DNA sequence: TTAAAATATTCCTTTACAAGAATATTCGTT
DNA sequence: AACGAATATTCTTGTAAAGGAATATTTTAA
């Protein structure tokens, strides 16, 4: 069982965290490197990483007194799967209101 | 130009709004119908729809004194495109830290 | 033009959460 | 053991936003 969509979306909805995730696309990084590249203070970087970690978007690998963070793929796959549930809609005449209006008339 | 990912994610990060969006997958609905199906009060339903509308996720069609809301597809396509930028990563040996560790050593 | 239904808006209160600053922890090195 | 570097945690404060209640707006019908 994977984290639900809401957890993933909430974690990603914060600008700095979104930046962190986008940065980590390029490869694993330590806290210090992330903080430096995004011009963040270390404590908030750790805190954001903590949120991302709790949401299952990121995991850490200890290396000496450093911690190397990298993305987890499952939540992104889940999100992709969720979006796929919309995909088949667009091809249909979803945006044509004819059918709905007829249904609406029927109720009156 | 489409709304950026952050706007979309922020709008979807709220549980009720996520519910609304998922409900609208099945087809356009009026405010009253949404409120009824999700057991929400009308004012908060309108407010959530307002946020979704401002974020470009939803649009309304006036029909008498009702308003029929439906999904907009562009933001979802954009989000899908954003996720695609992760896709090629998973196939690579992204999760193998070897390379990174070597890089890290080189810096010391 | 008044009334009623559907929806939108405003105001208020409360809560969640991010930033900032300070401190604690952990690990390797000497 | 002690120190310094890297990271985590705690505490406080400020702010954005969600919920509730009341009211305003819009539209149709009588």
UniProtKB/TrEMBL annotation, chains A, B:
Keywords: DNA-binding, Transcription, Transcription regulation. Residues 1-93 form the HTH arsR-type domain. CDD domains: HTH_ARSR (cd00090). Gene3D superfamilies: Winged helix-like DNA-binding domain superfamily/Winged helix DNA-binding domain (1.10.10.10). The keyword Transcription regulation applies. InterPro entries: ArsR-like_HTH, HTH_ArsR_DNA-bd_dom, HTH_MetalResp_TranReg, WH-like_DNA-bd_sf, WH_DNA-bd_sf. It holds the Pfam family HTH_5. It comes from the Bacteria. The keyword 4Fe-4S does not apply. This is Metalloregulator ArsR/SmtB family transcription factor. It comes from Fictibacillus fluitans. The lineage of its organism: Bacteria, Bacillati, Bacillota, Bacilli, Bacillales.
């Amino acid at each position: 069982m994977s984290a639900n969509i809401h957890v993933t979306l909430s974690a990603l909805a914060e600008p700095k965290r979104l930046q962190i995730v986008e940065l980590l696309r390029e490869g694993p990084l330590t806290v210090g490197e992330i903080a430096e590249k995004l011009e963040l203070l270390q404590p908030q970087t750790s805190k954001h990483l903590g949120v991302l970690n709790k949401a299952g978007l990121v995991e850490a690998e200890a290396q000496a007194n450093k911690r190397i963070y990298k993305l987890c793929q499952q939540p992104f796959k889940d999100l992709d799967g969720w979006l796929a549930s919309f995909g088949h809609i667009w091809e249909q005449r979803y945006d044509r209101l004819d059918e709905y209006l007829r249904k609406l008339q029927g109720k009156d």
